[in-house]
Amino acid sequence: MQVVLSIREGRLSSTLLLRRLGTESRKNNLYKAFRELGRVIRTITLLRFISEPQLREEITAQTNKVESYNGFSAWLRFGREVLEHNDPAEQEKIIKFNSLLANCVIFHTALDMTAVLRQLASEGWDITPEALAALSPYITEKIKRFGEYATDGLTDPPAAFNPRLELTTHAAGERTDPNQTAGARRAA
Hints:
Layout: H1 2-9, H2 14-22, H3 29-51, H4 53-76, H5 80-84, H6 88-122, E1 125-127, H7 129-133, E2 184-186
Helix pairs in contact: 4-6
């Protein structure tokens, strides 16, 4: 509490606080207090994780998203031999290029998926939020990593992008035909 009051009153600067915390000295009472506070927070979080199934599901879902992205990014990665060498500048270039490439491919895949969803909706298929939640832009089957790519149209501006995906939703509890695929069915 003293630290908070000192910061508010301007008697303790953030740089001095960080310098004190960075020493990791066993004699530093401020370091000890924040270490214990961190342990309490970690314990509370672990107890919530154990006792709340919904929190576990949420954390697992978010972790799976991150791992899916990392796997997709690793699949796209070029220059693995450069990463194995200890040249930080080259490593940084490869990592940034790979992130840019992964984001571009994911965006293009999302555009293609949106076009297909719009076509299905125009044909009378109902697309549910559950079906959308099950989709993933990390598809590798149709991507030609070392394929032939046309570059003659690079100077042409792209068509305008419409980010809205209008879907019809149904009242809660409305039943769908069990013979149709989960999440998508023809509207009657």
